[in-house]
Amino acid sequence: MKRLALGGCGCAGAMALxxxxxxxxxFGSGGSDTANASGSAVRVxxxxxxxxxxxxxxxxxxxxxxxxxxxxxxxxxxHPAGECTSWAAALWPGHRGRGVTWSGDAWEWYANAAGQxxxxxxxxxxxxxxxxxxxxxxxGEWGHVAVVLAVAAMTVQIxxxxxxxxxxxxxxxxxLAGSGITGxxxxxxxxxx
Length: 193
Description:
Strand order of the largest sheet: 1-2-8-7-6-5-9
Number of strands: 9
Low-confidence stretches: 1-32
Helix content: 10-25%
Mean pLDDT: 81
Structural class: alpha+beta
CATH class: Alpha Beta
CATH superfamily: endopeptidase domain like (from Nostoc punctiforme)
CATH architecture: Alpha-Beta Complex
Order of helices and strands: HEEEEHHEEEEE
Shape: globular
Radius of gyration: 19 Å
Number of helices: 3
């Protein structure tokens, strides 16, 4: 077995690398870009924003959703906290600012919202909840939900929690075709309280 020589036994180089890496594991770098399974960039948003609740802890409200109040919208998705449903519910206003009023796993949100009389759509819009089917590339066993930040011809930019880890908020672009999107739950016309 051949050893890589880093000057002497290599201990100094290994220790320096370890000392630089450990703080990043615990404190992050304030946001980073990684790639997901489909190869698109995932930008992790640094935690510790000025808006807090039990379901999502303290996070920064995306600037594209300036209408979201400090402390977020009412959120019944607190157990377990830190899930995609917690984040989407915290950012989505519902009728007259009451927030998400249905229950269920992420993949069930589209049908459950429609069952409560909320409009659902095949077309994205800023602020809409995007629902991913379960067992899709992005859905997994429980499905997945996120909130639309921007709409382009073939993609949507989304803000989501628990894609990169529990209580971790990230933003990424998702293709409208082939990504397992069930549909969108637009912000209702009577969203203002």
